[in-house]
Amino acid sequence: QTVVTQEPSLTVSPGGTVTLTCASSTGVVTRDSYPNWFQQKPGQAPRALIYSTNYRHSWTPVRFSGSLLGGRAALTLSGVQPEDEAEYSCLLLSNGSYVFGTGTKVTVL
Amino acid sequence: QVQLQESGPGLVRPSETLSLTCAVSGFSINSGYYWGWIRQPPGKGLEWIGSIYHSGKSYCNPSLKSRVTISVDTSKNQFSLKLTSVTAADTAVYYCARSFDYWGQGTLVTVSS
User: Fold this and answer.
1) Which residues of B touch A97 (CB under 8 A)?
2) Would you list which residues of chain B are within 8 Å, Cβ to Cβ, of chain A?
């Protein structure tokens, strides 16, 4: 079964920029994997941020952007705010099944 | 506004069947999208369980496929999950979602005797 790997943890300063990536064990991630990104804070349900690689939901702040980068899906947070500290998970469609990534803990410090 | 609410027993005995229902409000299941179940063991990552279309066509995680049944009741605007032969490894917060954009708050299901 496909394994989707993310950085375990990243630290960013307030106002800074950080990029998270999402890699698939099957190879290059493309738009056909329909990458999604989610934010989850402790004790809360995941909140959808990005779908189909780079489309924001109506509630997603513009400082969150999705892309493809070096064969991976990527989520870039620009102008990071303290409230962006959270766990971020990606989701890929692979061989007809959805697979979540391992998650990245983003610390704003 | 689309809202989803999971319901079901919080404790299930090993080898028995876990049954959950997701009630949808603010949107008709018949209007489209797919409706799914996701779980998260304590302190771990998210795992897709399966999804179903309003037509009744369903897709499941291959690792769980033999134990999972997902069904939809459009007359009640809800969909359900059954997971058979549960073990402690099935202890998790179970979420329902609409095409991964709108999520329920989640319900903790513990498998224990």
Assistant:
1) 48, 59, 61-62
2) 36, 38, 45-48, 51, 59, 61-63, 95, 100-106
pLDDT confidence band for B32 (50 / 70 / 90): confident
HSE on the CB side for A18, CA within 13 Å?
22
Facing residue for A102 by CB, picked from B45, B48, B101? B45
Contact A26, A34 (CB under 8 A): no
pLDDT interval class at A80 (50, 70, 90): very high
Sign of CA dihedral A48, A30, A100, A12: negative
Query: How many angstroms separate the CA atoms of A48 and B33, rounded?
Result: 15
A48 min Cα distance to partner chain B (Å):
5
**Tens-place pLDDT, residues B54-68:** 888 999 999 999 999
CB distance A97–B48 less than 8 Å?
yes
CA B80/CA B72 separation, integer angstroms: 6
Interchain pair B46, A46: CB under 8 A = yes
Between the CA atoms of B82, A25, A67 and A46, what dihedral angle is there, to the nearest 10 degrees? Answer: 30
CB B14 within 8 A of CB B86: yes
